[in-house]
Design goal:
Among the domains are: 108 residues, Orthogonal Bundle (Helix Hairpins), CATH 1.10.287; 112 residues, HSP40/DNAj peptide-binding domain. It has eleven helices and 15 strands. It is elongated. A hairpin with a 2-residue loop joins strand 10 and strand 11. Helix 2 packs antiparallel against helix 3. By secondary structure, the protein is α+β, with helices and mostly antiparallel strands. A four-stranded mixed sheet has the order 10-11-15-14. A three-stranded mixed sheet has the order 1-9-8. Helix content is 27%, strand content 25%. It binds zinc ion (ZN) (2 copies). The site of one zinc ion (ZN) has 8 residues, from loops.
Length: 377
């Protein structure tokens, strides 16, 4: 196995780097090596874990002190337990927003239990229109969500007298276990198996919630859609997930599904659409106006002599950039509209046009040659 790199070196900071410097460097490196940005790249995956591990240790004052004294050979063994560091799932969005502290604060000392009990996270899908994403829209959604049962205050017991302190863990919900790691003995904390970590044994269950401590209720939520949100973005509402007796609520995630627009396709901040035009409009040029996502009409100037499959660009009228200022562009692909049926008079008009606009069959070889040359250029 390769020699483990120095944590300061991994983060590219000096030994006396302060918290902000650590965080800044961690954010930019974690973004660079994030698996979402480097799919199927095992080198990036390794670096991502390395950066996470270095930050997890150096951002914890106690662990940093240990590391400064002993390097990787801390007498307490690896701070991550016998399995070593496993990596953490970090959302790309968490790297931009807040959130990373809470991810790393829970890493030491046996994982979940050290953070206390948390209810389950809940995922809700919600569809919104492209217009809603254009501006920072505030919308209201209603959903059946769990909240603490009112009859038992979330305890799950019929009466307060039915709650008994668990004797196995003495009401702590956690038990200490000792594990041997090489020559060292490590203390491990885990949920008490008898009370499932709640610290209590329920003698008679609450009839309203059948002892679960929570009930599902239709609830209204106001959510703010971030400007320029992309399809699949997840918004986190802390503490709005499943409740749990004697613990913190889980989080609620709202997964945004962006509905199809009647004519636009989206490519990040840019919008793409096809514009069918009749032969005369293409030849003579025209101006087209369409309702647009920003409320002002989108005016498309088609120049005379435009050709099918050419594109026109309207700058700065696309979606807002997710970060920073400004907007993307609108790309318009021109299509030739050919009527499906011709009546007699249309046919004769076309016949009349043939000598002036048609391409004589005698010139076809030159035309084919030119076309090929254009494509090569
Ligand atoms: Zn217990
Ligand atoms: Zn109840």
């Amino acid at each position: 196995m390769a020699e483990k790199r120095d944590y300061y070196e991994v983060l590219g900071v000096s030994k006396d780097a302060n918290e902000d410097e650590l965080k800044k460097s961690f954010r930019s490196l974690a973004r660079k090596f994030h698996p979402d940005k480097n799919p199927d790249d095992s080198e990036a995956e390794h670096l991502f874990k390395e950066v996470q591990e270095a930050y997890a240790v150096l951002s914890n004052p106690e662990q940093r002190r240990q590391y400064d004294m002993f390097g990787h050979d801390s007498p307490g063994g690896s701070p991550f337990g016998p399995g070593g560091f496993q990596g953490v799932n970090i959302n790309l969005d968490d790297l931009f927003g807040g959130g990373i502290e809470s991810i790393f604060s829970g890493i030491f000392g046996g994982g979940r239990s050290s953070r206390g009990r948390r209810g389950q996270d809940v995922l809700l899908r919600h569809s919104i229109s492209l217009e809603n994403v254009y501006d920072e829209a505030e919308i209201e959604i209603s959903a059946k969500l769990s909240s603490a049962c009112e009859s038992c205050n979330g305890s799950g017991a019929q009466t307060p007298g039915d709650i008994q302190r668990c004797s196995t863990c003495d009401g702590q919900g956690r038990i200490m276990q000792q594990a041997r790691v090489g020559p060292f003995v490590q203390q491990m904390v885990s949920d008490c198996p008898d009370c499932a970590g709640s610290g209590n044994i329920i003698r008679k269950r609450c009839s309203a919630c059948r002892g679960s401590g929570s009930v599902k209720r239709e609830q209204k939520l106001r959510i703010t859609i971030p400007r320029g949100a992309e399809d699949g973005l997840r918004l986190r509402h802390r503490g709005k997930g499943e409740p749990i007796a004697n613990g913190q609520h889980g989080d609620l995630y709202i997964h945004l599904d962006i509905e199809y627009h009647p004519w636009f396709e989206r490519d990040g901040p840019d919008l793409i659409m096809a514009l069918p035009l009749g032969f005369p409009e293409m030849m003579l040029g025209t101006q087209v106006e369409l309702p647009h996502i920003d409320g002002k009409p989108l005016v498309i100037d088609v120049p005379a002599g435009a050709k099918p499959s050419e594109t026109l660009l309207v700058r700065g009228r696309g979606m807002p950039h997710r970060r920073g200022r400004g907007r993307g562009d609108v790309t318009i692909l021109l299509k030739l509209h050919v009527p499906e049926k011709f009546n007699k008079s249309m046919r004769s008009t076309l016949e009349e046009m043939r000598p002036s606009f048609g391409l004589p069959i005698s010139d076809i070889e030159d035309a084919v040659r030119r076309e090929a040359q254009d494509r090569r250029n």
